[in-house]
Amino acid sequence: MTEKRGELVLRVVPGITEINSNGHIFGGWILSQMDIAGGIVAGRLAEGAVATVAIDGMKFISPMLLGDIVTVYAHEERRGRTSLGIRVDVVATRGTDQRQIDLTSGIFTFVALDDQHRPRVLPAR
What we know:
By secondary structure, the protein is of the alpha+beta class. It has a single domain (about 5-110), classed as Roll (Thiol Ester Dehydrase, Chain A). The protein is built from one helix and five strands. It has one helix at about 25-45, and strands spanning about 5-10, 50-60, 70-80, 85-95, 100-110. A hairpin with a 3-residue loop joins strand 3 (about 70-80) and strand 4 (about 85-95). The longest helix is centred in the N-terminal third of the chain and has 20 residues, at about 25-45. It starts with 6 loop residues before the first strand and ends in a 13-residue tail after the last strand.
């Protein structure tokens, strides 16, 4: 995972309903948390509504276990005319020794939307 994790956007503890038959947290649940965190950052940078249009390069590095504290970091990785690439990194805090374990990372692309839900130009920085 990248050294520059970015802003801490979410910190959550998954519950028993998010666990699969292997005793790991569902990948879709993790993906959902990443999309929420990326959308928060993208919406702030776009100064308005955004929609997820792509997820690039996401790979699960380690399984997430029940009891892990999940921390989601995000930062702007790239900027286009109407879209933003937001890198989202997920880290688990595990055990009594509070080990930090990299879980997954990916780049979520969001497009800025106007009132008609069509792409709009991003505001100047």
